[in-house]
Amino acid sequence: MPFASLGRAARETVSGLPRAFWWLWTSTLVNRLGAFVATFMALYLTVERGYSASYAGLVASLHGFGGVVSSLAAGVMTDRLGRRPTLLVAQASTAASVALLGFVHDPVAIAAVAFLVGMTSNASRPAVQAMMADIVRPEDRVRAFSLNYWAINLGFAVSAVAAGFIAQVSYRAGFLLEAGMTAVCAVVVFLKLPESRPERTAKAAREDDIGLGAVLRDGRYMAVVGLSFLIAVIFQQGSIGLPVAMGEAGFTPADYGLAIAVNGILIVVLQIPVTRFIEHRDPRRLLVASALLAGYGFGLTVFAGSVGVLALTVCVWTLGEMINAPTQTGLVVRLSPVHGRGRYQGVYTLSWSVAALVAPLMSGFVIDRFGAEWLWGLCAAVGTVAAFGYGALMRRLPAQEPAVGKPAAAPAEASAA
Questions:
Q1: What is the pLDDT of residue 152?
Q2: Integer Cα distance of 152 and 323 in angstroms
Q3: DSSP H or E run through 215
Q4: C-alpha 348: how far from its chain's center?
Q5: Mean pLDDT across the stretch 38-51?
Q6: pLDDT of residue 412
């Protein structure tokens, strides 16, 4: 009986979403299944090419900076050119730049191409999120964003394992395989996804003329972006502060691998049940709870003296991550004007890109100057601030607008997959 209930819950979770969503979801999954380069880039530069760890860190920073640069430009492109053209340009450019990265040897060229890869790969995110908001009904968006987040983590979990085996054979093969799978994503978009940008009215045209300034002057939305930045800085510690602190405490890389594997396993196994639980609940309470789970999940690391206890702390902040990701993305869409979704999503993406730059500097400084205990205490404090911020800003939310995207409106596009 429990298995029958679980199967029914899974069917209800994936039913009723438009066919266009599932093609977009498939594109996301294929893209993440091929995300090999980010996994082995540091090893490629230090082991295969013989560069220093400092140079590898510089390349990683340039990759992240590329994402910062492209966030706003991609958001504008998404609104002006359309979701589909932006996706096609971003994915085709990513495929070409990743393939090129496997053939360049000069350190300056590697750094420049890594910046280009970061810029092109990040450019698709505002378009994906805006298209998803266009084609999915407002009441189904949290579920849709959660399923997309699940695909991202499932794909990453598989690609992380595959990357190790591929690197043993040939690093260049990994670059070419990722380029090929990204090209497949572009083909899926070209063949299966129609443009979803709503038709423009005279009022929408006036909105479009406002540009990014309208987003930056939207006080409530920018406060949400600021809170998103705080949450992103916390979650970045899972891959930045945690391995460094564990190494200083005498744990091995294998110990860290065991602890952090809990994060991916829980998301893959529990994201759909968690989605069922949060789908129609108060987003204000969910975001407050997710901020506290994130902050205090990392805060509890100060008491962890074994791999088992560390794994338990990972469980706590992973639950916060599973609640926060779809709920916060849904909130971003809810606060975005229909014809400005690309720009709004671009600014939201920027908060995560900037966090990816700030978090390594912050965690390194705090650990070196004060010790890891202060870093975990700071995570708890930041989570508390974010929780209070969500509680204050989520009062009197605007009503959700009706679905306007053509693919969602067409009955023939519905799928009970």
A1: 84
A2: 15
A3: helix 212-217
A4: 11
A5: 77
A6: 34
Tens digit of each residue's pLDDT (9 = 90 or more) over 313-358: 999 999 999 999 889 988 888 888 877 888 888 888 888 888 887 8
Tell me the per-residue pLDDT of 182-197, one tens digit each, with 9 for 90 and over. Answer: 999 999 889 988 888 8
* Residues recorded for the chain: 417
Tokens of 373: 């205990």
Q: How far apart are CA 39 and CA 156, in angstroms?
A: 9
For residues 345 and 130, is the Cβ–Cβ distance under 8 A?
Answer: yes
The interaxial angle of helices 241-248 and 372-393, nearest 10 deg, is 150
- Largest Cα–Cα distance in the chain? 64
Question: Contact, 135 vs 198, CB < 8 A?
Answer: no
User: 279 versus 383: which is more confidently predicted?
Assistant: 383
- Distance of alpha carbon 358 from its chain centroid, rounded? 16
pLDDT at 7 over 70: no
Secondary structure of residue 311 in the 3-state scheme: helix
Torsion over CA: 183, 184, 186, 191 (sign): positive
Give φ, ψ of 242 to 5 degrees.
Answer: -65, -50
Rg (CA), the chain: 21
CA distances from 6 to 3, 240, 273, 338, 366 (A): 5, 36, 9, 36, 44
Phi and psi dihedrals of 377, rounded to 5? Answer: -65, -40
pTM: 0.76
Tokens of 18: 């438009």
Domains of the chain by range and CATH?
A: 16-197 (1.20.1250.20), 210-396 (1.20.1250.20)
